Amino acid sequence: MDCHKAIELVPEYVVDTLSSEDRAALQRHLDEGCQRCRQELDEQAEAASLLGEALHPVNPRAELRAKLLEQIDSEPQLPTTEIAPSTRQHESKANTGDKPFRLIDCFPFVAASLLAVAAGSLLANVANRQSVDDSLVQVELQLKEQWQRRIIAAEQAFGPPRAQIVGLNATSEQQFQAAIFYDRIAKQLHVMASQVPPPPAGQHPYLWLLDPEGRVLTGNPLKYIDFNRAAAIVDLPSLPKNIAGALITYESSGNPSEPRGTVVRRTTLKQTS
Amino acid sequence: MAAVSDGDKTAFTQLYDRHVPMVYALCLKIMRRESDAEAVVSDVFLEVWRKPGNFDTSRGSFRTYLLTLTRSRAIDRWRAAATRLKKTLEASVAVESRSHQFEEFEPSHVVQTRERSVAVREAIQQLDEPQRETLRLAYFEGLTHREISERLDMPLGTVKTRIRHGLQRLRLSLSALGESGGLS
């Protein structure tokens, strides 16, 4: 790729909307050491960031700060990587090649690399116990970072970054299927249910999560879509630990606190992860 | 930032206090839900803490690094959520269109505006409306040039020109702001 073509692609590169092919080609050009294009990239990234900076600043809840500071107490700092911030995202995607992540593909390479690093570090520092310890710590950190990179790659392929998904297996004697999972980071419960007949006029489908004794834990409206399907994305601060089942009812009054209408579907739920 | 690299928690706290209003505002703009925005804020600052070496002073200010990182993480999450929703519902449920609602968004805790922010906003206002709209779709909604051309029903070449010229004008504004150099 020549500089003319590279510079033409820079605006989309800085806002991360290039196709994977163009992104990889431009990345190769930058990696070859073209200072002119690198400078163009940095300046355009700086200019684009003004769009974000122009927003009215907003303070988040104080709890977020406290939670974050508590979290960093248990978070080790990792060694510097060679990937620059504005390109790390692109390089990561280029590495995955937009293909599904398969751990088995990476494991031999990761294992061999880590063994080589460990062996090299250990041999070089064998005369000095402190250095050996430092090398082992370094290897451990590298192992952790390698693992985190794999997680990030997998999440980019399959879900939101740093997503922590909890699946709930639905089993029912009826021909009823439901995909239910909880995203711990976004604090959202996602529900997709099929074989839910259309509600009568003036009534609305509701999903109720139940404990083992059949008591209601939460109740939220479902949106009927079409072809006997209903779905919901529910903001839920946390997933109740004792979920054992779910009910779908048709309710005629708004915001009911418990199921009063017709029970349409009933299923048991089991947490899978 | 150098102190953060040395594991100085107090320095990290100061860094957070100084920049979080800007980071959170960008997250809210892209994600719209406070819970989603907070998740991205956590991701971003944890990454700053864990990998302080990823900030390269020779490549621009810390502010730019932080905004680039924030936007990238937020757009990733937004796209993933949109894809997930689309797949889950097979596109039956319309994803809430955010394009016409940004300007109506009223954050709950607006903090004091700084002098620089005023100057930056003036720089944005100096863009003509088509440039501003095109850049907004690319930066905040993560649309490709082709998607923008379809959304605005205009030739792809026009979209590219508007974005290129818009960024050029912002670069001129940067000079006027006396931009550059690391900021911690």
What's the structural blueprint in terms of helices and strands?
The complex is a heterodimer of chains A (273) and B (184).
Chain A: H1 3-14, H2 20-31, H3 35-53, H4 62-72, H5 85-96, H6 103-124, H7 129-158, E1 165-171, E2 177-183, E3 188-194, E4 204-210, E5 216-221, E6 223-224, E7 230-235, E8 245-251, E9 262-271
Antiparallel strand pairs in A: 1-2, 1-9, 2-3, 3-7, 4-5, 4-8, 6-7, 8-9
Helix pairs in contact in A: 1-2, 1-3, 2-5, 6-7
Chain B: H1 2-5, H2 9-31, H3 34-50, H4 62-89, H5 115-125, H6 129-139, H7 145-152, H8 156-177
The helix/strand series of chain A, from N terminus to C terminus, equals HHHHHHHEEEEEEEEE
Q: Summarize the main sheet of chain A.
A: 9 strands, antiparallel
Give the amount of beta strand of chain B, in percent: under 5%
Helical content of chain A stands at 40-55%
Mean pLDDT, all residues of chain B: 75
Helix-strand makeup class of chain A: alpha+beta
CA radius of gyration of chain A is: 26 Å
Named at the architecture level, the CATH assignment of the largest domain in chain B is: Orthogonal Bundle
* Adjacency order of strands in the biggest sheet of chain A: 5-4-8-9-1-2-3-7-6
Per CATH, the class of the largest domain in chain A reads: Mainly Beta
Look at the structure and name the CATH superfamily of the largest domain in chain B. RNA polymerase sigma factor, region 2, helix turn helix motif
CATH domain fold name of the largest domain in chain A:
Immunoglobulin-like
Q: Report the β-strand fraction of chain A as a percent range.
A: 15-25%
Overall mean pLDDT of chain A stands at 70
Low-confidence stretches of chain B: 90-113, 179-184
Q: Kindly identify the CATH topology of the largest domain in chain B.
A: Rna Polymerase Sigma Factor, Chain: A
By oligomeric state, this entry counts as heterodimer
